[in-house]
């Protein structure tokens, strides 16, 4: 695939060059397939598969990844068209995938008329945006409301009634539910992306969970479950529970920042701080508005 420069500037990793190139017609066998991405990538499941004109895999060695370059030794000598499927994990822990064809001697076989595909359509963007929205609403309702309870309600000269505190804690519970729902929705979205929306495959889900994406997902789920326990302790009268919950909110903001492009910036620590500050400020603002 030879995407445009504009595609290479998208939020996630993009394939910017391939050797052999998409749609190329070669006169000599291919021994190594190379893919070049717009940023460093990580392997994801069966990162590259190459099928010959008879539908047989032609991988002939171990996959090698160096920063943004992926190499796979192949034995592609049979005349006809070859299908390349690829999937990798970008720096922000988002999977990207696609496919293209090249031919040797002449175009022939089941892939001959297949167009190159970048397997992330509009439906993926909608589902991904929905997952991010649910997660952020959960963050605002959970941590934003608890921070409001600590910094405004508890700090005021007039003590808040039990009814006010219980109403705020109910909002926090709704936020926790949103945080828990966002993670399977995110996993579903990414797994469907790898199959181009053609159904779920257990190997795709397992491959995702074995990457940084799965690690960050488990951390976010763990933070939501821990917050659930802390809110329960607050309802039972734990005096320091709200401060502990707000501290957990900072930790979750750090986890979200690690899963963003902030970690790949030239000054990652500064980008992480900026991302954490932005997320916390938006959560506090929205949480205060809801209250």
Task: Give a short summary of the structure.
This protein is α+β, with helices and mostly antiparallel strands and 291 residues long. The protein has helices at 5-8, 122-153, 162-194, 202-209, 212-235, 241-258, 268-290; strands at 15-19, 25-26, 30-37, 42-51, 64-66, 69-76, 80-89, 95-104, 117-118. A hairpin with a 5-residue loop joins β7 (80-89) and β8 (95-104).
Description of the structure:
- This protein has 291 residues and is α+β, with helices and mostly antiparallel strands.
- The protein has two domains: 5-118, Immunoglobulin-like (Sandwich); 122-290, no CATH class.
- Helices cover 49% and strands 20% of the residues.
- Strands 2, 4, 7, 8 and 9 form a five-stranded mixed beta sheet that branches. Strands 1-3-6-5 form a four-stranded antiparallel beta sheet.
- The longest helix is centred in the middle third of the chain and has 33 residues, at 162-194.
- 35% of the residues are buried.
- Residues 1-10 have low confidence and may be disordered.
Core attributes:
Immunoglobulin-like; 20% strand; disordered N terminus; four-stranded antiparallel β-sheet; 291 residues; single chain; 2 domains
Strand percent estimate: 15-25%
Number of domains: 2
If you average the pLDDT, what whole number results? 83
Q: Please bin the fraction of helical residues.
A: 40-55%
How are the SSEs placed, and which strands pair?
Blueprint: H1 5-8, E1 15-19, E2 25-26, E3 30-37, E4 42-51, E5 64-66, E6 69-76, E7 80-89, E8 95-104, E9 117-118, H2 122-153, H3 162-194, H4 202-209, H5 212-235, H6 241-258, H7 268-290
Parallel strand pairs: 2-8
Antiparallel strand pairs: 1-3, 3-6, 4-7, 5-6, 7-8, 8-9
Helix pairs in contact: 2-3, 2-6, 2-7, 3-5, 5-6, 6-7
